[in-house]
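User: Good morning. I'm curious how iron/sulfur cluster would be positioned relative to this chain. Could you predict the structure with it bound?
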Amino acid sequence: MFEKILMTLLLLASLGAFALRARDLVGYLKLGSGEDRRPRSWAQKLKEQIVVVFGQRKLLQWTIPGLMHFFIFWGFVILFTTIVEAFGAVYQEGFHIPLIGKWGPLGALQDFFVVAVLAGIVVALAIRKIQKPGRFRGSHLKEADYILYAITGIMFTILFTRAAEISLGFFPYPTEWTPVSAGVANLFENFSLEAREAIDTVFLWWHSLIILGFLVYITYSKHLHIITAGINVLFTSERPKGALKPMYIDVEQMSEDDTFGAAKLTDLSWKQLLDGTTCTECGRCQSQCPAWNTGKPLSPKLLIMDIRDHLFEQGAQLLAAKRQGEEQYAAAVEALPALNPEIVEDEVIWDCTTCGACVQACPVNIEHIDTIIDMRRNLVMGESRFPREMQTALQSLETTGNPWGQPPQARIEWTKGTSKQEPLEIPHISEAPDAEILFWVGCAGAYDDRNKKVVYDFARLMQIAGVKFATLGPDENCNGDPARRMGAEYIYQMLAEQNIELMKENKVKKIVTICPHCFNTIFNEYPQFGGTFEVIHHTEYLAELVKEGRLKPQTTIEKKVTYHDPCYLSRHNDVWEGAREVIEAIPGTEYGELHRHGHNTFCCGAGGARMWMEENMGKRVNTERTDEALASASDTLAVGCPFCNIMLSDGITERKADDRMQVRDVAQLLLHSIEIRPSDGDAGGNGSGNGNGNGDGGRSPLSGNGSDPEEEEKEEA
Ligand code: SF4
Ligand code: SF4
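Assistant: Good morning! Here's the predicted structure, ligand included:
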């Protein structure tokens, strides 16, 4: 009887402490600002729970640690039944769970998972103590050790309790299903009845006490994720991966007192605070982050941990102030330190390229980019505190509609070609009602010399294929990506609204662009402002034209080609096949992947508006990626993004490797291989007559009409 009373008291104390802490934690999350995360698609949510939580898909991207976690996770699920049995056994000798409690296969699963979890612990300890990967730098390692030791204790006590029950004859499962427990029971064969009873009692209580302590401890530790991970996955954003959190600003009504983004802890949304309480400190995000990997202070893991620690530090007093009344709460919020730079250094916030590697790697769907951008929004729109060099780009975006600060009329300069290229006549969308495609040129394509050639070559390819297309000419504005990712939401909004209005006026439906940032913004973010368009990246479009036989690569190009996946195409939008299909369709090319490719690509360093900021700390991100490309067996680095083109070309020049590797857009490689036939001129869908210039049958663009990048570069040199 005493045993039962004591266990009941301990159980109530532990559950009570757990409930109080859970109440506080919910209160902490409610300190955050509102954000509508009501699930829109339950089917999608169910799928995510199955795939991410129960299937552990993101963890299994890394085989060994993934399998280790998979077995520990499923061990917890299955062995929950043994915990119920253990507590039941305190109250009733020979207790079994109704219906399933004597079922052999369940007993077998329990046995299996005891061993699997122990094996998982050995692997976890080996990773932590022997391998010591850098991703754990900054994590609470001691805390993780305590948890591993506690889990080891739970497993051994389960095993010994089961073995003692077998030897005492009241084990509920048939022992032929539980060979491990039966094997341990053999150890007690020659023990007296009293000794076996004592072993049963000691291990049963030991087991129960660890569980009760564990239940309270996890609510104060990073292992809180055991409870919050499933919830965090449930409330994962349903926005497209590449779309930032929407923010609507009434520019007309903006005043100095308005707050934007996240200045203080309470400006972060409840979901952003939940992210903090869910972080497992696994460091997967940190290990993939281009900023961290090149020696910058930004670690997405430490950023999330800092916010979590700040919440735990301030949560209790904020809750107490809230209970006292509105005035007291307002004063407590007022007294909070600023998130930047007190909790997170400004530099950390500006280092991010918004490449998405952290979000993709995170096994519990933490959304780092939303938090970083909210802090940028505050720094730019609230504090006017940002890297000095950004000022010029922002002013240019506001006054000229492009970050280069060039006049709108210069947007069509590229159509004039170079000394080796004939001018192209491309109609404005308003003059081409039969245009099937709006070619969205983008600022980099229009104003950067290297990319003007790409735009020209892509336009030539469309003409050769007989595509009817038009552009917005000088009326095109920057899509707004740099402004939005800098945190200047009001400039983004202004540009987005102008572009959407213009395209709607001209009844644009289908857009093709050479720029993944334009692609992502128009396709994923313009719908937030009522602009929904079909957008295709030029690599996919070219692959389509090749498949349809409208473009026929014929000239052999004996090059070893590799392709750099742009983050905003491959990772944020799952678009990567077209580029490879086009390259592989070119006769003579030998294609090889870079070590990090597809979803797992590595940033070129220009995203997140980093293109417009200095990079003074650590190794340059573009140099890191260039080194990876140079270490490959390829001599040509194909790209599908004007910014990657600039960054990687600069990287190769910096490494003095221009004779070893050339950077070429996929469109340039394809045009290089297209044989122009006399009839191609007529195929130019816009009646421009520029399909093949002089109709000099059978020659390759290398001989004059298209741009031969190598020739042009020699000429420039
Ligand atoms: S988005 Fe990329 S650069 Fe930014 S924190 Fe994540 S991994 Fe690092
Ligand atoms: S944010 Fe995600 S990936 Fe990064 S340490 Fe936390 S749980 Fe791991």
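The chain has a mean pLDDT of 92. Residues 2-30 form the longest helix (29 residues).
Let me know if you'd like a different ligand tried.
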